[in-house]
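Re: duplicated header lines in exported C-alpha cells

Our pipeline writes sequence and C-alpha cells for each protein into one text file. With two proteins the header for the second block appears twice in some exports. Here is an export where it did not happen, for reference. First protein block:
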Amino acid sequence: QNIDLASFKVRSYKLAEDDHTLFFNGYSVKCDKASFEIIYEKQRDYSFELVARDTDHLYVDQWTKFGKPGIRTGYDKTLTIMKKVADPSSFEMISDLWAKDSTSIYSNFTPSNEVDMPSFQFLFEAHYAEWAVDKNLLYHGGEIVKDIDGGTFKALNTFWGKDAHSVFSFTTGRIRSKIDAQSFEATDDKGGGHDKDNIY
C-alpha cells in the first residue's frame, strides 16, 4: 500500500524503495531513508538475514535473524529497531552472532557484560558453533566455557585448543581432562593429536 509505482524498484532480496519510502518484506520501514545503509546481508537455504542502519538506529530482520519460522504478523512484519545498541554509527558485525560498536561487544545484539572488549577475539565458526576468546574467558556461542583461562588459551585448529592447564575439544565443547596439556600437540587438521602418553 501507499507505493509510488513510477519510482518503485527492488533494492535487494526483500528490500525495495520508491522516491519516498523504504519497504522490507512488503511493509514500509520507519527510517531515515537518505542515510539508510545495509551493513550485513546473508541469504541461507531457508532464511535471509539483514542488518542495516540510518543516522539514529540499527535495524535487524529479527524474524529470520533469531530463527523464527512461519508467516510474519504484527510487530515482526518489517525491520526491527535494536534499542540496546549504543552507537549505530560504529556498529559492525564480527560474525553471525558477535558484533561490536565503539562502546561494547554484542552477542545476539545484546551487550555482553562479561566480555573484555580490548582483548576480545573471534576465533572461528565450526562444529555448529561460534568460538571466541578474551583475556579472561573462552566463549561457545554467547556462553562462557567453564574452567578455561582465556589469557593462556590458544586455538590449535578447529578441533583442538588448550590453556596452561587443560586441553579443550571444540567438537565436544568439553575439557579433555586425561590429556596432558603441556605436551599436547595437534598433528593434523582432521582432529589428530598426541601428548607424551597417547595418540588421539
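Second protein block, exported in the same file:
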Amino acid sequence: MIDVSPKFDTLREATAEARLAASPATLRMVAEGTVPKGDVASFASAAGLLAAKRTPELIPHCHPVPLDHADVRMRVEDGALVFTAVVRAVWKTGVEMEALVAASVAALTAYDMLKFARDPARALAGTRLLEKSGGHSDWRETPAGLRAAVLVVSTSTAAGTRQDKSGRLLERRLREEGVEVAAYRVVADDPAAIAAAVTAFADELKVDLVLATGGTGLSP
C-alpha cells in the first residue's frame, strides 16, 4: 500500500452511483414490493453498507479506513434502478473506493434478487464516482480568497486611553499575505462583548478566520 503516514487527517467524503437496467415490468415489481426474495431497496442498502466496511478486504491497495458514516439508497428511474452511496470519514486518505464498492454491491444484490424475472433487459449499466472532497485537491497552500476579522480585547484601548498596536500589526500582516480584512473591532475585556463580536464576525460577516489580540495574559 502507499504510505499515508505523513498525511494529516481531514474530513473525507465521496458519493458514487451504480445503475441496473431493467424492463418496465421488472421495475414495477420492485416499486410495488412484489419481488419474491423481498424488498430490493432494503437488502441492497444493507449489502452496500457491509461492502463499504469491507472494501480493504476486496481491493488490495485500499487502506482500512475508520468510516464515520455510510448511506446507500435506491431510486427507480425510467429504465433503471439507481443506487447512490455516500461515505464519510475523518482520515488520511479518501473514501471513494468505499463509495464505489458500496454502490456496486448494492446493484449486484438487486441483480441477484431479480434473477427470477428472466428479464433480458436486466444488466449492470455502469458505476461512477459522482463527487469526492477533503483530499489534496481541496487543500489551499495560499490564503488568497480568505476573509478575516481582527478583534482587539482591551479595556483601556476601548476607553480611548491607550493606542492599539498589535491589532493594526495583525491587520497589516493579513493584507500582506493576501487575506481580506473584513472587520477590525476593539472591545473591552468583557466576556459578553467578546462573544458578541465573534458571533457577529461568524454569523453576519461570514469570515473564515478571527484573530484576537490584547488582554492582560492569563486570568480567571
